[in-house]
Structure formats: structure tokens, C-alpha cells
């Protein structure tokens, strides 16, 4: 049986960044598993543009050499802004080839705790023993489904993260539910693909981002109010950009920061694309019933729609127990708060040697961990801890 010091589970931005940094630790036996950039390739709408600004879209490496600028120089082309999804995926794959060439594309099927680490079973039955496991498996399993849509056929309702091809909605009547970027951009893409689309939101209006760009004319004052990552409203943006700062605020304030920074919103460059898309505001769905090959949804005002398809842009709700590779006995041992694992300052959970990166770490480190720009803080903090432990113990 193969024995290693550290196993990284997941090959999206957080897994790739962690592996790139951990590779710098001399003598560390490291393995990383997963299909590179899989969620970005297969579970986001084709034609999407990244909401995050340029400064927030670099995957971290130890020398800060594998940036979007470096990728542009490598391919001899300027990267458009906002960044197209396909270009970001290409950048991630280029990053992987440069920094983590030895990736194993198999999946981890099960993680079990042992006295001196973990026993990992791969999807093909191979087994590995690892002293530490870093979970960077992304948000795919956390898609939020309103209960009234559960159990309905996928021909009639899907989540915005289920499939990437919006062309299947050409000449279809589609209802999109949600006021966040994934819902709004999906609606724009469906409209542009020839679908008849309507958006339904609970809020009284759509929250469009873009105040930071408007405040640029204030010069230094804008920099005091907003971090370059542009996550959250004025002031909050500066605080959440420094994950270590979050711990100095009461829990209720931290939670408020996270809600404000992650509130449903759309990039301002979507506004012009919504000129011909109807939005029903301040409404919610009370029932959804399949009728004659369509889905009839009834809203709280008594009106109804017969849709060929309902697309749920209802976001994600972190719950690490939904990771299929975590057996129930391990999940029960894991200290959690509302689905988030409680973590130390080194991203280590209550189960010694088991670390979580990305969105699951946001309860401790704030909303930055939902975004690519959080890879730098997370990868450096994790690597510093493992390097210190390795030098003290002679291994990872």
C-alpha cells in the first residue's frame, strides 16, 4: 500500500494552489487527486464571464509567478476583462501543468481515520495511507435546492451548476429563480441563445455591483473603502480581504460580514443584457407541478407560469457531510457549525490531520474563502504549518 505524508483531494484553484505550495517542502511525499478545473469546466454556463475582478482571479503559487498576466504572455494574447470562463479554465490548466504536473485524475471514494493518519480508498479500489489529508473539493455537492423542487425530473428543473450548455434552451420557455450572479448571467445567456426567459426573485430589486468602479474618481478614499478583490460593500470589503482580521469581531458581526459580502448580486456589465428580460420582483414560488410535459409554477401572488424548464440559480449551502468521500462515522466526529467545519488557524479540523480549504473554511476565515483570491492566504498558511510540523517530526 502506498504511504504518503500529505494527500490533497481536489484539483480546482484551492487544490492546485495548495499542491503548488506544498511541493516546495523538501522531502514531503505529496499526492493530489482530481480532474483539474472540473467544476469550472463542466458546471458553469458556457459563455460565462467571471464576476471577480482581475486582481482577484490569480491562483496562488509560491513565487507569485503563475499569474493571469504570465499566462497571457505565455500564449501571446491579452486576456479580456471581465475574464471569459473558457480563458480562466485554460489558465487553470496551464497553472496545473506548470506547478502540479504529477496530478492523479482518479477520485477518492472514501476517507477513513486510522491511529496514525488516514486510509484512503480510490474509485478504482486502490488504497493509500496518508498522514494528512487536505480537502479542497469545491462547492459542487452544496447546490441549494428549494424543497418544493426536490424529486422533480431533470428534464423540467435543474440547478445552474448541473450542466454548462445553455443552447439546449433555444426556443424554450425558461424560468430562472434567483438574484445572484449565476442566476442572472444564466438568464442572459439563455436569452441570447434564443430562449424565452423570465427571472423571479424574492428581493424587491436586483442588487447590481459596481460601486467600487464608480468611486475610483475619489482616488485614495476609494482604496480605503474597497480592497482590490472587491468583495463586499464599502469598509466590509477591506476587512474581509484580511482573513486573520475576522477573528477580532464578535461571531454575530462575522456572520453579518459574510452575509453582506455574499449577498445575491450581479455584475454591472450584465445590466445592458437585461433590457429585454422580464424580472418578477418580490415574488416566490409556492408550488411546482408537472403538467403535460411542462412545469407549472404558482407564485405567492396567485399568478402561474407553464415553463419548459425551471433553472435554479439558488446558490450553495455549505454542508461538509454531503461530501460523498466522508463516511458518516467521520462526519459525526467532525466539529461543525451549520455544516461548516470548525478549523484552527492552520485550516485543521477537530480531526487531527484533516484540513479543509475553500468555501468550507469560510466560517473561520470569512467570505474571501469563496473566491479564487483566497487561495494565497489559505495555501501559504497551510504550507507554513505543515512545513513546521515536518521539520519538527521529520515527516509531514
> How would you sum up the major sheet?
6 strands, mixed
Task: Give the radius of gyration.
Answer: 22 Å
In sequence order, what are the helices and strands, one letter per element? EHEHHHEEEEEHEHHHHEEEEEHEEEHH
Taking the alpha carbons of the first and last residues, their distance comes to 18 Å
Structural class, by secondary structure, is alpha/beta
CATH arch. level architecture of the largest domain: 3-Layer(bba) Sandwich
Brief descriptors of the model:
globular, FAD/NAD(P)-binding domain, single chain, 5-stranded parallel sheet, 6-stranded mixed sheet, 396 residues, alpha/beta, 16 strands
Summarize the structure.
With 396 residues, the protein is α/β, with parallel strands linked by helices.
Amino acid at each position: 500500500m502506498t504511504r504518503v505524508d500529505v494527500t490533497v483531494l481536489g484539483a480546482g484553484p484551492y487544490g492546485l494552489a495548495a499542491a503548488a505550495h506544498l511541493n516546495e517542502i523538501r522531502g514531503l511525499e505529496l499526492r493530489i487527486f482530481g480532474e483539474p478545473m472540473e467544476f469550472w469546466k463542466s458546471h458553469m454556463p458556457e459563455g460565462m464571464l467571471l464576476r471577480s475582478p482581475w486582481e482577484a482571479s490569480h491562483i496562488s503559487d509560491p513565487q507569485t509567478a503563475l499569474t493571469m498576466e504570465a499566462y497571457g504572455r505565455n500564449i501571446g494574447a491579452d486576456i479580456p476583462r471581465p475574464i471569459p470562463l473558457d480563458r480562466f479554465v485554460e489558465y487553470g490548466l496551464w497553472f496545473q501543468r506548470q506547478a502540479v504536473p504529477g496530478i492523479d485524475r482518479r477520485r477518492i471514494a472514501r476517507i477513513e481515520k486510522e491511529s496514525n493518519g488516514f486510509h484512503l480508498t480510490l474509485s478504482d479500489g486502490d488504497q493509500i495511507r496518508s498522514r494528512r489529508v487536505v480537502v479542497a473539493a469545491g462547492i459542487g455537492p452544496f447546490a441549494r435546492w428549494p424543497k418544493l423542487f426536490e424529486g422533480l425530473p431533470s428534464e423540467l428543473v435543474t440547478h445552474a451548476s448541473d450542466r454548462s450548455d445553455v443552447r439546449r434552451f433555444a426556443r424554450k420557455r425558461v424560468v430562472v429563480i434567483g438574484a445572484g450572479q449565476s442566476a442572472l448571467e444564466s438568464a442572459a445567456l439563455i436569452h441570447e441563445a434564443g430562449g424565452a426567459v423570465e427571472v423571479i426573485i424574492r428581493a424587491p430589486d436586483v442588487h447590481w455591483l459596481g460601486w467600487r468602479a464608480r468611486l475610483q474618481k475619489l482616488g485614495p478614499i476609494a482604496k480605503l473603502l474597497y480592497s482590490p478583490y472587491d468583495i463586499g460593500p464599502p469598509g466590509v470589503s477591506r476587512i474581509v480581504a484580511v482573513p486573520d482580521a475576522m477573528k477580532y469581531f464578535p461571531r454575530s458581526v462575522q456572520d453579518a460580514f459574510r452575509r453582506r459580502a455574499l449577498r445575491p448580486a450581479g455584475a454591472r456589465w450584465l445590466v445592458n443584457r437585461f433590457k429585454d428580460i422580464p424580472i418578477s420582483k418580490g415574488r416566490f414560488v409556492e408550488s411546482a407541478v408537472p403538467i403535460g410535459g411542462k412545469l407549472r409554477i404558482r407564485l405567492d401572488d396567485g399568478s402561474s407560469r407553464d415553463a419548459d424548464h425551471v433553472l435554479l440559480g439558488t446558490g450553495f449551502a455549505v454542508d461538509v457531510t454531503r461530501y460523498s468521500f466522508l463516511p458518516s462515522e467521520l462526519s459525526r466526529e467532525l466539529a461543525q457549525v451549520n455544516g461548516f467545519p470548525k478549523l484552527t488557524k492552520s485550516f485543521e479540523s477537530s480531526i487531527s490531520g484533516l484540513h479543509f480549504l475553500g468555501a468550507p473554511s469560510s466560517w473561520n476565515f470569512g467570505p474571501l474563502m469563496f473566491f479564487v483570491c483566497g487561495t494565497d492566504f489559505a495555501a501559504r498558511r497551510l504550507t507554513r504549518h505543515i512545513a513546521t510540523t515536518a521539520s519538527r517530526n521529520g515527516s509531514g
